[in-house]
Amino acid sequence: MKRLFVVVMLLAGLSVGVVELSAHHGRGNVYGMETPITLNGKVTEVAWRNPHVLVYMDVENESGDVVKWAFENSSVNTLAEQGYHRNTLRPGQEITAIVNPSRAGAPTGIVLAVILEDGTEIMSRRRGENPID
Q1: What would the pLDDT profile of 49-63 be if each residue is shown by its tens digit?
Q2: What is the rounded CA–CA span in Å between residue 4 and residue 68?
Q3: Nearest-CA neighbor of 6 among 73, 14, 65?
Q4: Rounded CA gap, 115 and 96, in Å?
Q5: Omega before 51 within 30 of 0, i.e. cis
Q6: Cβ contact 100:110 at 8 Å
């Protein structure tokens, strides 16, 4: 009886872990993965932390209002392995961000690429070589 209890508890624990992992990486439900958009603006903050680095930027919309966008990027480890660090993007820096936006219309998304003022493309996942963690 004790063995059965242990097996049931182990299976219950594993199923919770699987649900949490699938929810964490179920981005297709949250973001429009088939509809990337391009935004130009100024970096306001870079939150260099796990599980994902977040980039915040101010973007002027069609009405001239400034909208604060937040973009999810890869993990600190993945970006560091690719040669990026916490000062790669700095507040006040003008960038172009190509993102998959929120399906709900919120000013959030997943970064596909960041393009610097000189045209250099960084932190790119557009060709599939840098998957998000």
Answers
A1: 999 999 999 999 999
A2: 53
A3: 14
A4: 5
A5: yes
A6: yes
